[in-house]
Design brief:
Strand content: 35-45%
Structural class: mainly beta
CATH class: Alpha Beta
CATH topology: NE0471 N-terminal domain-like
Number of helices: 2
Number of domains: 1
Shape: globular
CATH superfamily: NE0471-like N-terminal domain
């Protein structure tokens, strides 16, 4: 069974609230998380140390406090690096 293109393989968060991503299809993309952090659900990630603790788990980007971003959203709202 083929892996969907939007599955995240690698993620590197940066201090400007962007995340460099590598997807299952090999694409390197950059996601700007700043607009998302305006939503109350993601407010805790405005704290830079917390944002920078992002990691890949189960094919998407997650944080310790049970926050994540859907991999489809990361793919669709990111730009090619």
């Amino acid at each position: 069974m083929a892996v969907p293109e939007w599955v995240v393989r690698e993620a590197a968060p940066h201090e400007d609230y962007t995340i460099e991503l590598v997807f299952a299809d090999g694409q390197h993309r950059v996601f700007d998380a700043a607009p998302l952090l305006e939503e109350s659900f993601y407010k805790p990630l405005r704290q830079l140390p917390r944002f920078l603790s992002a990691r890949v788990e189960c094919g998407t980007v997650v944080w310790d406090d049970d926050l994540d971003i859907a991999p489809e959203t990361l793919y669709e709202r990111s730009r090619v690096a």
